[in-house]
Design goal:
The protein is mainly alpha-helical. Helix content is 68%, strand content 5%. A two-stranded antiparallel sheet has the order 1-2. The radius of gyration is 28 Å and the shape is elongated.
Length: 167
């Protein structure tokens, strides 16, 4: 009688310590298995569309970055091949977006005035930020470079309420 109370007390302690885990009754060795919500019994499985987007994004990003380096580093003397390589990378990245949206069964991106304005604002912000960095680091115009860089950051931050909206 006393032994069964002791066993029950130990079982309560084990259950409280193993919070978030479930006791496995079957098997050669008893144990606990972590309880997680979701599909697959707690095992996270990558969706096919995410995997394809990751692979295409990596390939496109590497091609684009290599093309930019080829075009902008004068010692490499590869401006034209760099432009071609960067363009191929940009096309692969564009294909990635189209393929991912198709696999996720999302509607194609509609071209509207707001979409065009958002893209133009993003380009302007990135260019201002880049020019500010160049002025500061390459041409040693510290004050004007910092000011232009901050303006670029502010323009890029304006994209958030423009795309997501304000509540």
């Amino acid at each position: 009688m006393a032994k069964s109370k002791l066993v029950k007390a130990n079982q309560k302690i084990a259950d409280s310590v193993a919070g978030g885990y479930k006791k496995i009754e079957r098997g050669v060795v008893g144990g606990y298995k972590k309880i997680e919500s979701g599909e697959g019994g707690g095992i996270e499985i990558m969706k096919k569309s995410t995997f394809v987007a990751m692979i295409l994004g990596t390939i496109g990003g590497i091609l684009f970055a290599l093309g930019m380096c080829m075009a902008l580093i004068p010692e490499w003397n590869a401006f034209r091949p760099g432009v071609v390589m960067g363009t191929i990378g940009a096309v692969v990245l564009l294909i990635m977006v189209i393929v991912w949206r198709k696999m996720e069964k999302k509607n194609p991106i509609r071209i509207s005035g707001k979409t065009i304005g958002t893209v133009i604002l993003g380009i302007i912000g990135a260019l201002l930020f880049g020019v500010g960095m160049c002025l500061t680091m390459v041409w040693s115009n510290m004050i004007i470079g910092i000011v232009i860089g901050i303006v670029g950051i502010v323009v890029l931050l304006c994209l958030i309420p423009l795309t997501k909206g304000l509540k």
